[in-house]
Amino acid sequence: MTSVRLETSSHLDGTVAADVLALAARAADADGVEAISEAFRLALTSAHGDVSHLVAYAGESRSEDLLGYAAVDSGGSAELVVDPDARRQGVGRELLHALFDSDFVPGSATGVWAHGDLPAAQALAAAEGLVSTRELHVMARDVAPGDEVDPVLPEGFSARTFELGRDEQAWLEVNALAFATHPEQGSITLEDLQDRMAQDWFDPAGLFLVEDTTVTDADGGHPLAASHWTKREPGSRTGEVYVVGVHPAYQGRGLAGPLTGLGTAYLARQGVDTIDLYVDGDNTRALATYRRAGFEDAAIHVVYGRPTAP
Fold it and tell me: Has residue 135 been placed in a domain?
């Protein structure tokens, strides 16, 4: 067993954040799956996040080896990663105990993500008496001929692309309503949106807004009914159905399929070979929509938490 020293912070300085990102990259190379999600990755350098960071060291100073990292947000969602060279030495268990049981963080974790649900994560969860409480499906499909053609929207709706400085608030309001029960997406703030818009992959031309043209407001605009935000890392041959949301008042109006098609058509025209997406396992409606569009499961991420008391 390795002696582990934990440091906790609400904000990491640039050097430590860079060290954590390097550790995460080593883990991804070893495991074939990212260990830290986008939200927690952004929180490493954000000045306004609500994430508590835990950094595990082997010695008494930061010059010693960085063994692992964990974080928990204000909603109790947590992630952790251990350097491949430091595994099977009790580091993951120390971080897990700190997330769930200690005074290191302001609020204990309610669940910790296991991206890819790898055997080592399953074994650690079982040893600690944790059970699967949530599944996130990673779905993907290859781009096919004809994907580049925009779909036809139902009558009374039109699509346009996002305009910086004009559409932020409307998008946030519809996103919050569309994901009212979603633990991460539904709580996105303007600062969170700005963090994402500052990333090198952001392109407003890939964020589509669907408006209800049967209603006109005092300024001559139309209410936002739905949106499809696509994502493509620079130079990548893979595109992502990043966020698809429909205002509750417009659900059941035949928007889901064409809305998905708007984004996949855009990505196809960008020259990607593959399109992927993430969807919760209990979102049966979205799963059905994506499967009709040709998407299939490529991986499953799991949240492990304590079993619910009978």
Answer: no
